[in-house]
Amino acid sequence: MEKTEEKTYFAMIGLIISLMAFSLSVTSPWLTELIAPPPQETLEDIAVETALDIKDKLIKGLKGEEYKSPPIETKTSLADILPLIIILIALAGTALGTIGFVKKESARTSITAIALGITAIMAIYFLMIAAILLFILLIGAILSAIDLPV
């Protein structure tokens, strides 16, 4: 009896992409530290700048002139957009896994690609979700300890 091989192009590519996204999402805190630009100014520099800015604002105000603060420079680094990149990669892997599932490719491969993609997105925000859940549990414990008359 011949064994027929299932074609799993979309599912397998989706699995590889989702695995890559999951790996990136798990290591994103360390990657962010590696690629984040070093701080340009120290706390002392910022304090001196703020004091000079306040002094300039007071002098211009006393003279009756309008004070225009210097424009704030915002720089976008790769560390700022890394979560977005990971989410887009995970969505691509999930989409390819879904396409493979719809095309009746290997169900195991397709579902694994979908699950890894969704898990990659969740792993980025895991600490935030854990902190929110801990906060909700803490509030619930405090409110249950307080006997409030209804």
Query: Sheet bearing the most strands, described?
Result: none
Shape: flat
Radius of gyration: 26 Å
Helix content bin? over 70%
Tally of individual helices: 5
Key descriptive features of the protein:
150 residues, mainly alpha, 2 domains, 0% strand
Protein model, in words:
The chain folds into two domains: 7-36 and 77-124; 38-70. It has five helices and no strands. The termini are far apart. Helix content is 74%, strand content 0%. The longest helix is centred in the N-terminal third of the chain and has 27 residues, at 9-35. By secondary structure, it is mainly alpha-helical.
Write the layout of secondary structure elements.
Layout: H1 9-35, H2 43-63, H3 78-102, H4 107-124, H5 126-145
Helix pairs in contact: 1-3, 1-4, 3-4
Please sum up the structure shown.
With 150 residues, the protein is mostly helical.
